[in-house]
Amino acid sequence: MSVQPYLLISDTVLAAVTGHLRAAFDAWCAQWGIAASEMELDCLRAWEAPAVSTEASWRALRSSGDDLWWYACTPDWNLQLRQAMFPQGIAEPVQAAQSGMADEVAEAATQALFASLSGTTQDGTPLAPPAAAWSRGAGVVALRLGLGKQSMHVIVSQTAVLRIAQWAGHAAGRLPPLASVNYLRALRDIRLSLPLEVGRAEVGLGSLMLLGVGDVIRLDTLADRPLTVMGPGGGALFDAYLGLADKKVALEVVRRD
Fold it and tell me: How far apart, in whole angstroms, are the C-alpha atoms of residue 14 and residue 44?
């Protein structure tokens, strides 16, 4: 069974991650001759980010342990990127001289952008992020790079977010430890339904059809044994005896063996 820790991303952590990705993005723009002012960069908690267009196909998965990165581009992303790299009057001669060269350069730039952000070259099998990545508390960051009407989406896993935040926090000293929480005070007003299993019985269908008022069904629980109080997830919490309190059915909690 895999366990995904619940992690809410604070504004401080989000700012640290955004700053790290922004620096990598700016360096990529400088290397590939693209004006950063022409592109948009939005870095949000994944559960607060707009849904990724169904037209965008996920193209890569980088896995190093639990450090996962995904990216997807809208259909004409490379075309838009090519036009930004080769302005009007330049792209056409280049393509005329060497067919497809501009497209290859745009694809190489896209791969380099992903490598700059994730700190690694692309590998792994193309795969969409799991649906749980967009759940509140997943600790996942969604990055959107906009160029004209086209977008590149990058999803950063919880492990990668923590790695970036810890590195940035160590470098800048901006990530103090979280204050301790009084869990009893925080959780004491939450109401839960606790089922009580009195006992079980197996009855044949024929006998069940003949049951009438006054008939007795014997359970598998001994009369002098405590009953089990179950938690919301079905696990046993504690033992108890049935009784009366103020003319209402009540439970007396006892130590569970």
Answer: 7
pLDDT in tens, 47-60: 999 888 777 788 77
Q: Which two tokens stand for residue 33?
A: 């001759």
Nearest to 19 by CA among 87, 117, 109, 112: 117
Q: Are 231 and 194 spatial neighbours (Cβ–Cβ below 8 Å)?
A: yes
95 Cβ partners below 8 Å, 6+ apart? 101, 102
Helix residue ranges per DSSP H, the chain: 11-32, 77-85, 91-97, 101-118, 158-172, 183-187, 205-210
Distances (CA, A) of 218 to 60, 201, 238, 243: 61, 7, 24, 20
Contacts for 16 with CB less than 8 Å, ≥ 6 apart: 164, 165, 168, 169, 172, 174, 175
Q: Per-residue confidence at 40, pLDDT binned at 50, 70, 90?
A: very high
pTM of the complete model:
0.63
